[in-house]
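Handout for the seminar on molecular recognition.
Each group receives one record of this type.
Step one: identify the two inputs.
Step two: read the structure output and locate the region that could contact NAP.
Step three: write two sentences on what you found, then compare them with the reference statements printed after the record.
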Amino acid sequence: MITKTKKLAGKVAVVTGASKGIGASIAKHLAAEGAAVVVNYASSKKGADAVVNEITKNGGKAIAVQANVAKQADINRLFAKTKRAFGQIDILVNNAGIYEFAPLESVTEEHFQKQFGLNVLSLIRASQAAVKLFGPSGGSIVNISSIVSTLGFPNAAVYSGTKGAVDAITRSLAKELGPRQIRVNAINPGMVETEGVHAAGIAESEMRKQVQAQTPLGRIGQPQDIATAAVFLASPDSAWITGETLTIAGGFH
Ligand code: NAP
């Protein structure tokens, strides 16, 4: 008889922005493989509690921690609480991010700072804090980037810029942290149906129709399409993979 052990048993994962959307699905999938998960959120306590409840109901371990990762003090608190609860970290998923679209003439400093502050600076700061808590056997950082980093979309200069930076940071940190056995990879999703996409009015838009029409697999993504890949990149199944950007977009290029 073959007994299947969970791929992430005994591991501890922090997922930023896990109260909804892609992050919530990643948190649930990591927990289903045995990881204890820190479900970070900024304002949606209800969403984060629901994710934690679902995980614990299924026999997993999770805690919800409020922290606006755009603020250094909140990042410090997030990782201090993680250390207190679980002692160490093996997996960091930098998922929290925002997408705002604007034509060039409407781009403002605020639009720039908000997106670069969260999508780029917070990712660096969270990685900095997490790496201090990784053990001697290293770990895995998974950055949620986007296909916009390589595909040109109009009205997305700033958002695309943030995700181009995420790809570059991923490759740089992979080289820097490789000797410590810390792997750093990115997932670059195409359009995924999330609360954020609904709130932005994209879910039923002309853009969705166009993307779907050009997608060989004929649909936009669902959060679990991304979460299963995050589990792969967090687990020893990808032990010799680092510095990669994995496009998951139903074949849309
Ligand atoms: P979403 O549905 O809007 O959810 C965003 C999550 O991030 C929420 O849990 C939110 O928490 C959290 N968050 C936002 N600001 C935060 C902050 N300052 N500190 C901590 N948490 C914060 O987003 P999504 O569509 O799942 O997108 C998640 C990631 O995937 C983003 O990096 C995005 O760029 C990337 N992505 C998305 C798509 C897509 O089509 N959906 C495609 C490619 C890439 P609260 O609810 O508590 O505010």
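Reference statements: The radius of gyration is 17 Å. The domain at 12-192+223-248 is CATH 3.40.50.720 (Rossmann fold).
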